[in-house]
Every structure is written in structure tokens, then in C-alpha cells.
Amino acid sequence: AIQMTQSPSSLSASVGDRVTITCRASQGIRNDLGWYQQKPGKAPKLLIYAASSLQSGVPSRFSGSGSGTDFTLTVSSLQPEDFATYYCLQHYNYPWTFGQGTKVEIK
Amino acid sequence: QVQLVQSGAEVKKPGASVKISCEASGYTFTNYYMHWVRQAPGQGLDWMGIINPSGGNTNYAQKLQGRVTMTSDTSTSTVYMELSSLRSEDTAVYYCAREAGESPFDYWGQGTLVTVSS
Question: Which of A26, B28, B58, B71 has the fewest CB atoms within 10 Å around its CB?
Fold first, then answer.
């Protein structure tokens, strides 16, 4: 199974900060990667698909980049509603695998 | 609008089985694969498997092979996930999630909490 190593596992940031989260795949996955945001008690929400495409309705402060094994999710200016846990997902082959998650907390 | 509505919370004893439903609406049910994902308390997301609602083909996570069964009913636009021989480690929130080509998991069910306790 492809392992997705996500870092950091948590971070503290302030409103307005630029935040970057990375995911590294244990083998190449082309651009078959999505990013999800999850708030407590809620289902995850798709932010980015195909590594860099913004899902409809998602604010443009979210962006994704990367291909192959290294991927990045960037929030250009963190807003109060962005404090949540973020996950990457590879869907290159089965079993699909998630990163361990990154909890973004208020500094 | 697309909606995935799951059945309610369950409490089961170790060794029992649980069957969760996920009713889809707002789109053509047979055109999209459906996945199941679970999340143990305080833990990350864990992919369980996929079903093609049209033909019923499935692909399960190896660690669940032999215990999980995913089925679909096209007459009611509902997919089901049954997990048998439950153990305490199966306590989790279970989600169904739709696959839409290169944007997987674009819609999710609200989640179903399954508690396994003696």
C-alpha cells in the first residue's frame, strides 16, 4: 500500500498567516491527490482535487501543488473558519490511503 | 442537490454485526462509485472499500477482507456496508462518500457512529 506522510502533524498559526502543509507519497502517484478539511463532528470537505484544482465553492486562498511524490496545500491568509484538521488522500491505486492529518490551531 | 443520508447510530456487542445504509439523492445513482471511510475516536481517516452501485463490483481494504460486505440497491439508490465479528477497535464513525472521477469524495454522508461495547 502507498504510504502518505503528512507534515506537520499540528501547527499553531494566527489569522492572516500563510500556512503550508505537505504530503509525501511512498511512490509516485501522478497527480491523483486530494486535500480535505474536517471540523470537529463534521464530515470532511473536499478542497483540492487532482493535486491543484480548486473544488467549486472553495475560497481561492486555498491552493495545491505538486506531482509525483511531493504535494503541498497552502492557505494564503488564514481565516478564523480555517482552523480545522486537514488530510491528503491518494487515489492512484487501491487501497486508497490518507495522510495522518494536520491540525491547524489558533496561536 | 446531491445528498447522502446515512442510517442512525448503533451500539453493538463484540462478535455481532452491523449494517449501515447510505441513501443517495440528487444525481444518477449508478453513475458514481461509492466508498466507505471510517474514523475511530480522535483518529484519522481510514479507507474501507468501494462499490460500483451499477454492477455491484467491490474492492475492500485487505485488513477488512472477510468481515466487510458492501452492497447496493438501485431501486432505492442505497448502498449498504455490513461489518461482522465486531471488536472494540471497530468503534468509529463510518462515512459513505461519492467518487466523482478525478475529484473523489466530493460528497459525504453525515456519518454513523458505531459503538462496540460489552
Answer: B28
